[in-house]
Structure formats: structure tokens, C-alpha cells
Write a sequence for this structure.
């Protein structure tokens, strides 16, 4: 496959915006992406688009892709909606990378969007179990937080990990989110607050759970050959991988890690020709605090059962050896499902170009994104580097 | 982009199957696809999969792709759900073709599925307007049949076309469906029956509307280079194109044709290097009878405002110059939304290999599929030929 790069990236504010329609939120991300370019972007150069969204709330049950693409002024180009639960954004990016990689298109938009905060209670019940297995989990009453609670319980039991370490993920990511003017939550929390919050699904409490958010994100993917028509500092896609697993967790080999993410990471590192220790900054899928700890292990930042130790040493905090979720992650930046995988790429794009403001990881050369669908039914991992 | 072929194709029965789960219907198509191969298929050779579905009825709100892929025994490969309303299947095929075209994967599954016949009334109301613009059409009370009724009225007015010609599409496609043992409706109807049926949305009556159906379809896409590992007679993808338009029909330049389909067809013919008159057999998106007449014109089989004349001459009937919808089309074969675009490719695959049974178009060398999303918000066109 030919080389592919990201040349522009942007996102809307993440949060609760009853005054903004989903079209406006999408356009906000698209415009922010355009403003990351030195010059103007003529939308007619975009030859295809992929939009990741679950369409929570049913704002447009079919064809949200064309609807949103036409709203931001794209031509009558192929627009495909891609859905893989909370990894919809990652799979939209994967589709865009393959489309450019094929040589069929040179300039492709990958975007994601979700508007979750004005969903009715009826719809809410319906989609809260969106990403569990309908037959074995959702209809049986297992909530989505409940699924991750089962994983957390097993992880804490198997590896003798106190609850404190889950809370440390929340504290870290809130401290990062406080530096991100587009984050849903821009305030720090203490370990005491994190540990003492109201229970959701034991051992997960309120601060172990990412919020539901409104938001969108967008990146422009081009062939590396044409990237410098758009920017002097493109971010190259060095490697990528995607994996799948059974949706129902009882069918999996293990529930203290996500096989789909392990497969995705292994493929991405093999393609990039680098190893986990080369990564300078990562955005990982911390839909629940336990998920970030499992991510450390699935990606290879830590050995099996040892991810939580990175937190104690502060290695993944800004200023540490390898900051994870400098954006605030899903926990503090917010988690508008379809937008998340794209927004992770936006953060890494900015980090690698030295444009991440107060949360800049100094001298970051290699960045990684890790986006999980549901409870691990699917995952994507991308590795990026500045093209020097 | 490197050359790509279809090496296996199959579909489930289309119809009403309360006794079969969506997983079973999907597996039926997958197994039928396998049986089109001379030898056995080891599912582990499949490197990625794309599943087109709207998920009507919410059988699995997120991640139906991984769920269905694991059910038929695929490995933990990347599986992406693709949605573009009734063109979900066509866009799943497009994604698979690009994925193989990129060189990243050699063997990719493209499939589609829908289970529409056991949907509750509440859900039914919700998704019946699935493919219209939610703000301007669905919430305003315009049904999906209503949208096509507006188009039909305008077409009949502009080109002075009597209602009879709409009904002739239904008569033709029912006569073809009577020859297809997997069709939802396998009986002929008379012109009198077609014209005298109960009104749905004037000028469209019951026989102008395709049914809601349960069904699935699957094709195996490989690089042309590797195609003969699977079959001595692969069907080559000669050309493809996809287009988009505003969802809301009041925003379009014209409503007597679909711009998205015109764009898709123009691109597909340019890529294939042949012209509409070279096509021997076509499967077009006759969700309503008017849609088939517009398809003739959008593809280029007839001039603007002259598509209906092909019906009078019997040119698109089996035995005519260029049979259209020998499978029975959406009207008689059935229209399980996400499966339709793939099922069209299944029919052309069989036609080009001389395996279409009683509805075989003798000596067919070039075949075309035309799949429309919603009322024309998106469309794909593929042109296929036997690789000799």
C-alpha cells in the first residue's frame, strides 16, 4: 500500500450543547480542521468521505454520512457511514486510509460525530446497551458499565490490584483535561474525590466512567505524495491494525485484556517497524478507568497484569516518560462515541506538530491511538510520525 | 488500483422467516457463497470483512459486523459495518473492493443482511422514514413511498407518461421473480392486477412498491492475481463509481432522475472503458417502479424522459435486448435493505458464469449493478465482466 498522511485535523468543543444541532457540531469540527491548514481548503478537492457515528438518538436513521457531508459543502462524492460502536471513528479512519492507499482517491475526509446529551429516556435505554451483545448481555440486563465492572473485578482479583489504581486513571486524565480548552470536563479532581464518588457498577463509580458527550472531529487524509500541497508538516500514518472479538464477553478467552486491541497493536507495530517503547505519546480508549490499564498491557506498554504500575510511577502523566491521554482522554475530554477515534488522531496530530498548547509533550516523534468498539468487539490502533 | 475480482457469491432465501434469526439468515448466505466454490473455503483465509446493514429493528444497535462475522466462524479480523440506507450493500462492496485494491488485504468478504419482517410497530414507524431527510421529510410526515410518489408524479407530468408504464415494471419483474427460487414473490401478475391494486401514495399503488424482506447476501472479493486460487472463472470488477446528493429532495436540481446514480454510472463506465450499450444484463434498484425507469436514464440505457419506452418494446424483459432485473429485482426478489446491493452482485456473478438457471441471459459478457441509498442520497454502480 502506498504511504498515507494526515494533513489537517480539528475537532468541535466536546460537552453538552443543547443549542447546537448535530449538523452544526459536525461543521464546527470541519471548520476547525480547515483552520489547521496554512491556506484555504477548497472542499471540492475532497474525493471521498467516511463518517463514523452510531447515530445515537436517531437524528438520522439512515444516511447520516451524505447528510452531514452535504451540510459542510462537500461535492457529490462517495460518502460512507462506518459503524463499529465506540470504534466507529477508528474504523472510519481505517477506511479512509485504505481508500487513499488503494490509489483510487488522493484526498479523503475521515470524520466522526455524536450528539448524546439530548437523547430521550426511551432512546437512552435503547442505546445504553448499544455495544454489548444484545442477546446475551443487553436483553439480560447487563449494562455497559456492568460489562466493564465484570472485567475490572476480574482484573483486580487476578492481579491483586487495589481500587485506588483505577481512580488514579481518573485523577490523571482530569488533570490533563484541565489543560484542554475543548474538553468536556476541564477541572482537576483529587484521589479522595475519585475514590469516594457514587457507585455505578461495582467496582466502578462515577469517576471511573467516561461521560456521554456531544462532539465531532475530522481529519484530512491524503497520499504522502500529495501531502505537501496541503501542509509543510504532514503527519505520516506509519502503521495501523484492527482486530475483532466475540461481542459477548463470556465467549472470550480472557476478560482482563482485549484480544481485538492486542491484535490491532501487534499489526500496527509490525507495519510501523517500531516497538511500544518508541512511542512518545498515546491516546487510548479509557471509556472506563479499567480500560486504560488494560490498554497499557494490550498495546505493550506494560506486561500482563502490570499496567497499573505505570500509574504509581507517574510514567503516563504529562511530564512522565510517556504521557497517555494528554487530551484528557474519554474520561475528561469526553466521549461522543463516533467522534472519539478521530479526536484521538486530532490530538496526536497536534502533539507531533508541537501544537498541543499547555499539554504539549516535548519533542514527541511517535504517537499512537487506540480506539475500542464496545467492550472489545473491535479495535483499531494507529501509529503516527512526523514526516521529516 | 490493482485489479479485483469476485470469486464466490451466494444469498439466503429472501422472504418472511419468523423462524430464522438474523444470524441464521446471514449464515445461510455465507454458506451459499461457499457452495459456489468448487472446493472448500477455509474461513481463516478471509482477512477483512464489510457488512452492510441498517440494523432495522435494532437487533444489535452497535457492532452487528463483528457479531455476524464471528457467528460464521471468521477470525479476529477487521470487520466494518457500512451503512448508506438501501445502498448499504453497494457501499460495503465498494469498501471491500478498495480494501483489496489497496494491496493491504487479498481476500475480503462483502456481505449484507436485514431482518425486516418481525419488527414491532413502534420500530416500524421509526425506520420506515429511515432514508428520507429527518428534519425536512420524515418529521414532516412524508413517508418513503411518498417521496417516490412525488418523483413519479413529476416524471409522469414532465414526460407525459401514463401510469401504465410504472405497472409494466412490476409485471416484468414479477415475471422474472417467478423464475427465481430464492425470490420473495415467485408469481406472475397481470397488468390489470398491477394497475388495479390498492393505493399507497398516489400514483404508487401496492404493486409499485418493493416489499420489506428478510434476507442476506455475500460475495468474496480477491485480487485478480489470486482469484484463480479460488475459482477457474472469477468475475472481474471492471469499473465502479459512487455518488451522493442532498437527502432532502427539495434541495436537488431535479427529481425526475437521481444525480448520485448518474455520477456513479459515469465514473463506472469511464473506468471500465465500455458504454451502456455494451451491457448485456443489469440489476437495478427498483425500490419503486418509477425508480427502475429513472435508473434506465441515469445509467444511460435510455435518454432523459425516454426510459419508459424500453418497457413497451420489451427490451428489458428476459428474452429482450438487455434484460434488467432478471432476478425479479427488489420488487419481486425482495428488498432486505442492507443485503440488496450485494444480492445484485450475486445475480450478475451467476449470470456472467452461466449459472442463473431458468432466468439465464444467454451469452452475457458484461453485467451492471445499480444500488440506490434512500431516495437517491447515495448510489453505487459496478460493472462486471468474466475474466477470460
Amino acid at each position: 500500500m502506498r504511504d498515507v498522511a494526515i494533513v489537517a485535523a480539528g475537532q468541535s468543543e466536546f460537552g453538552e450543547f443543547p443549542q447546537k444541532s448535530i449538523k452544526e457540531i459536525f461543521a464546527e469540527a470541519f471548520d476547525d480542521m480547515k483552520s489547521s491548514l496554512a491556506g484555504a481548503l477548497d472542499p471540492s478537492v475532497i474525493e471521498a468521505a467516511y463518517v463514523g457515528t452510531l447515530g445515537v438518538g436517531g437524528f438520522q436513521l439512515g444516511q447520516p454520512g451524505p447528510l452531514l457531508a452535504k451540510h459542510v459543502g462537500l461535492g457529490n462524492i462517495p460518502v460512507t457511514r462506518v459503524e463499529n460502536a465506540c470504534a466507529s471513528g477508528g474504523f472510519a479512519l481505517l477506511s479512509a486510509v485504505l481508500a487513499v492507499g488503494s490509489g483510487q482517491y488522493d484526498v479523503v475526509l475521515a470524520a466522526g460525530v455524536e450528539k448524546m446529551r439530548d437523547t430521550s429516556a426511551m432512546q437512552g435505554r435503547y442505546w445504553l446497551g448499544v455495544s454489548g451483545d444484545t442477546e446475551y448481555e443487553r436483553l439480560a440486563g447487563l449494562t455497559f458499565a456492568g460489562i466493564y465492572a465484570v472485567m475490572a473485578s476480574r482484573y483486580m482479583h487476578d492481579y491483586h490490584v487495589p481500587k485506588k489504581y483505577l481512580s488514579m486513571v481518573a485523577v490523571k486524565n482530569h488533570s490533563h483535561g484541565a489543560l484542554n480548552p475543548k474538553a468536556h470536563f476541564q477541572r482537576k479532581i483529587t484521589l479522595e474525590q475519585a475514590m469516594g464518588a457514587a457507585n455505578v457498577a461495582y467496582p466502578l463509580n462515577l469517576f471511573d466512567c467516561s461521560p456521554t458527550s456531544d462532539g465531532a472531529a475530522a481529519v484530512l487524509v491524503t497520499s504522502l505524495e500529495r501531502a505537501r500541497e496541503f501542509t509543510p508538516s504532514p503527519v505520516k500514518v506509519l502503521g495501523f491494525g484492527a482486530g475483532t472479538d466475540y461481542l459477548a464477553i463470556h465467549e472470550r478467552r480472557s476478560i482482563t485484556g482485549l484480544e481485538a486491541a492486542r491484535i490491532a497493536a501487534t499489526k500496527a507495530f509490525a507495519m510501523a517497524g517500531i516497538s511500544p517503547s518508541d512511542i512518545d505519546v498515546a491516546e487510548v480508549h479509557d471509556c472506563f478507568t479499567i480500560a486504560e490499564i488494560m490498554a497499557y498491557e494490550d498495546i505493550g506498554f506494560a506486561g500482563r497484569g502490570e499496567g497499573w504500575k505505570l500509574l504509581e510511577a507517574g510514567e503516563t502523566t504529562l511530564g512522565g516518560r510517556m504521557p497517555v491521554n494528554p487530551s484528557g482522554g474519554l474520561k475528561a475530554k469526553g466521549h461522543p462515541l463516533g467522534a472519539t477515534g478521530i479526536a484521538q488522531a486530532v490530538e496526536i496530530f497536534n502533539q507531533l506538530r508541537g501544537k498541543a498548547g499547555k499539554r504539549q509533550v516535548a519533542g514527541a516523534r511517535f504517537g499512537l491511538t487506540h480506539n475500542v468498539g464496545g467492550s472489545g468487539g473491535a479495535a483499531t490502533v494507529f501509529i503516527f510520525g512526523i514526516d521529516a
Q: What stands out?
A: The radius of gyration of chain A is 19 Å. Chain A has a mean pLDDT of 95.
